[in-house]
UniProtKB/TrEMBL annotation:
Magnesium listed as a keyword: yes
Residue ranges of the TM segments: none
Domain PPM-type phosphatase residues, every copy: 360-577
Biased composition range(s): Polar residues: 74-84
Enzyme class: hydrolase
Protein known as: protein-serine/threonine phosphatase
Lineage of origin: Bacteria, Bacillati, Actinomycetota, Actinomycetes, Kitasatosporales
Pfam families: HATPase_c_2, SpoIIE
Biased composition (Basic and acidic residues): 105-118
Residues covered by region (Disordered): 1-134
Keywords: ATP-binding, Hydrolase, Kinase, Magnesium, Manganese, Metal-binding, Nucleotide-binding, Phosphoprotein, Protein phosphatase, Transferase
Function recorded in the entry: Primarily acts as an independent SigF regulator that is sensitive to the osmosensory signal, mediating the cross talk of PknD with the SigF regulon. Possesses both phosphatase and kinase activities. The kinase domain functions as a classic anti-sigma factor-like kinase to phosphorylate the anti-anti-sigma factor domain at the canonical regulatory site, and the phosphatase domain antagonizes this activity.
Catalysis performed (reactions): O-phospho-L-seryl-[protein] + H2O = L-seryl-[protein] + phosphate
Extent of Gly residues compositional bias: 47-59
Length: 704
């Protein structure tokens, strides 16, 4: 006769009333069939469909199940496989499966669920054991799906605990290596330490996610298995080389706790006190967690003494759970490391802090495109320039990958170097275009480079295919600046044009990347207009005479992004122009002659007297004299001297010699070489910057 399926799930596409599914069920006696006599002869008389003997010749097939409608010569008829009487007892079917024919002849076992092997009833309120191989397969499938849903380490470990308790075990302990190895990295220490990462116990209600019916479980009494383990297990343990725990972990396969290997390994893992509450018999399983290349931890599955012990097939289930969990933990650790590298890369590619140049205040924001794309090609920068000027840069490299971030870093470094040469904005973009072509044929980027002069209250802007900046005036009017669009960097053979515009005091310039104004829901023009309206609306909140705070303004601009508007990463740079009043600036030209240092001292003294800073005269005159003396010694053209009064007093001396001075320690017999030493000791800050026409040496003093 046909072997019955191991599960009572109905095969897809089979109707229980269809004669084509007769082989999937226990054969039913035909109408008029005579039951087998009690003497055990096994003779069965069939109806019209034919006749046969269960223990001898004949056939029981489709015609026996179909009754008078079937003929005896059907192709589905099969000979009996044995001459012995059939003693196979069909397994009890769940309530969702129709009762099988002949089920009324089975002996009654009493009310309630029963254990398959012993026939003993399961106490109410306890989890029903997995009685069939199909149960285990369904449980493993549901548990692995739950484990696979986790993206980080904690989610995966929690998925393992919630999937196994209470369906598979009443409690679970998960130990992981501390620290967890990443990829192919070798552990820094020779010792292997395991830390208790998570414990879980049986909840008050069954978890129905695995596909089993919910059962009301009484809350555990104090002092039960899990409560005692939680109080006695240690948080850390060391895996001693050559010890029992090391041997079990090296074996990879799960083992019962009552085995000799596990009996010696559990005290090392849980502690001597914890092993006293581990139930006897096969009610504890120790499963090593092995990743791709090494063991990364261990899991202990526990059952209460009143519950049925684990079976040998349960070791295979524990092995599957441990394997999926370990591989998931490996992936989570690698993902965390990649996310950390991406964050560090992006952080180092962008300015850690913005400078505080004279006459301008700055604020910035950066947002990645998504949580899974932490790096991108957008960048911003603010570079102090000679003459209290500042260069404002915003750029965008195509893509959101490590390659885009690397190219962005190279272009940003190139822009900083070119800015240090004090090149005009259009020349900076030209050299950036050449650099992008040297990096590769498909290295495309957009960039906007602007130079703000707080003394002249002017700004010079050059654009390379970037969205235009928006200028918010003090009265609340926002306008999109008309700058030549230019071609993106990397195209090659294109000239860039610069424009010079007014930068009134109190105005705010907003530089941004296209991720702020362009998305799948709107085009660039619409986004720029929305940005202009947002800036104007924000300015109206603070009144016409008070510009909005920069940090709050940046936050308000980012709030214009709605759901679905984050298709690209965003870089934002806001600059508030304070400027330097003409009355706070002193500027003179000095001929390169011996009398120049004395004249410089007199001019500085008069400026300090006009500003009410007479108490700084001695220090300023000394340092001005030393710097001007060094300049006129080698200069061939007039030397420039400029004093700026802001929150500090700044002095700038320029000449046509490109060589930068270097601080050195003069010997006792040297007649010179002490000028920069005095500047370094007395000034708050000092430096030297090379220009296209020479250099500028500057120093700052705190105002008293």
């Amino acid at each position: 006769m046909t072997e019955q399926p191991i599960s009572y799930e109905r095969p897809q596409g089979v109707d229980p009333t269809d004669h084509r599914g007769a082989l999937l069920h226990t054969p039913a006696p035909a109408p008029g069939a005579t039951a087998s006599p009690p003497d055990g002869s096994g003779t069965t008389t069939c109806g019209k469909g034919g006749k046969g003997t269960m223990g001898g010749q004949g056939a029981v097939g489709k015609d026996a199940a179909a009754g008078p409608e079937a003929g005896s010569g059907t192709e589905h008829s099969q000979p009996s496989a044995s001459t012995e009487p059939d003693t196979h007892r069909p397994r009890p079917a769940p309530e969702s499966v129709p009762a099988q024919p002949g089920a009324e002849a089975r002996p009654e076992r009493g009310p309630g669920p029963q254990e398959r092997r012993t026939g003993m009833a399961v106490a109410p309120g306890r989890p029903t054991p997995m009685r069939r191989d199909g149960d285990r397969l369904r449980f493993v499938g549901a548990a692995t799906r739950r484990i696979a849903r986790g993206l980080d380490l904690d989610e995966i470990v929690m998925g393992l605990c919630r999937a196994t308790v209470p369906t598979f075990s009443d409690a679970i302990l998960v130990y992981l290596r501390d620290p967890l190895p990443v990829g192919d990295e070798r552990p820094a220490a020779d010792r292997i330490m395991l830390r208790l990462r998570r414990t879980d116990r049986i909840p008050e209600e069954r978890d129905t996610e695995t596909g089993f019916a919910a059962l009301a479980l009484p809350p555990p009494e104090p002092g039960e298995l899990t409560a005692e383990l939680s109080a006695s297990v240690g948080d850390m343990c060391e895996v001693r080389p050559g010890g029992a725990l090391a041997e079990v972990l090296r074996g990879v396969r799960p083992v019962f706790a009552d085995g000799p290997a596990a009996r010696a390994a559990l005290p090392e893992l849980l502690g001597e006190e914890a092993t006293l509450v581990v139930p006897d018999g096969q009610r504890a399983v120790l499963a090593p967690l092995r990743g791709r290349r090494r063991v990364i931890g261990a899991a202990v599955f526990l059952r209460r003494p009143e519950r049925l012990p684990f079976e040998n097939d349960d070791l295979l289930v524990a092995a599957q759970l441990a394997t999926h969990s370990a591989l998931g933990i490996d992936k989570a650790v690698l993902y965390d490391r990649e996310a950390y590298i991406a964050d560090e890369l992006q952080r180092t590619m962008l300015p850690e802090t913005l400078p505080r140049p004279t006459g301008v205040r700055l604020a910035s924001r950066y947002l990645p495109a998504a949580e899974t794309a932490r790096v991108g090609g957008d960048w911003y920068d603010a570079i102090p320039l000679p003459g209290s000027r500042v260069a404002l840069v915003v750029g965008d490299v195509m893509g959101h990958s490590m390659t885009s971030a690397a190219i962005m870093g190279q272009l940003r470094t190139t822009a900083q170097t070119l800015a240090g040469l004090d090149l005009p904005p259009q020349e900076v973009l030209h050299h950036l275009d050449e650099q992008a072509q040297r990096l590769g044929t498909d290295r495309m980027a957009t960039c906007l480079y602007a130079v703000y002069d707080p003394v002249a209250h002017r700004i010079t802007i050059a654009n390379a295919g970037h969205p235009p900046p928006v200028l918010l005036h003090l009265g609340g009017r926002a306008e999109v600046l008309r700058v030549p669009p230019g071609a993106p960097i990397g195209v090659g053979g294109v000239d860039f044009e610069a424009v010079e515009l007014d930068a009134p005091a109190g105005a705010t310039l907003l530089l941004y990347t296209d991720g702020l104004v362009e998305s799948r829901l709107r085009d660039v023009a619409t986004g720029i207009e929305q940005l202009r309206e947002k800036l104007a609306a924000t300015a109206r909140l603070t009144g016409p005479d008070h510009p909005p705070p920069l940090e709050a303004l940046c936050d308000e601009v980012l709030d214009m992004l709605g759901p679905g508007d984050r298709d690209d990463d965003i870089a934002l740079l806001a600059a508030r122009f304070d400027g330097i009043a003409p009355s706070d600036v002193g500027y003179w030209l000095l001929e390169p002659e011996d009398a120049a240092p004395g004249r410089a001292r007199r001019l500085a003294r008069r400026a300090l007297s006009r500003w009410g800073l007479e108490d700084m005269s001695d220090s300023v005159e000394l340092l001005v004299s030393e710097v001007v003396t060094n300049a006129v010694r080698y200069a061939t053209r007039p030397v420039t001297l400029r004093l700026l009064r802001t929150d500090v007093l700044r002095c700038e001396v320029g000449d046509d010699v490109p060589q930068l001075p270097r601080l050195r320690q003069a010997r006792a017999t040297d007649e010179g070489g002490r000028g920069l030493y005095l500047v370094n000791r007395l000034a708050r800050r000092w430096g030297a910057t090379r220009l296209s026409t020479g250099k500028v040496v500057w120093f700052e003093l705190n105002r008293s």
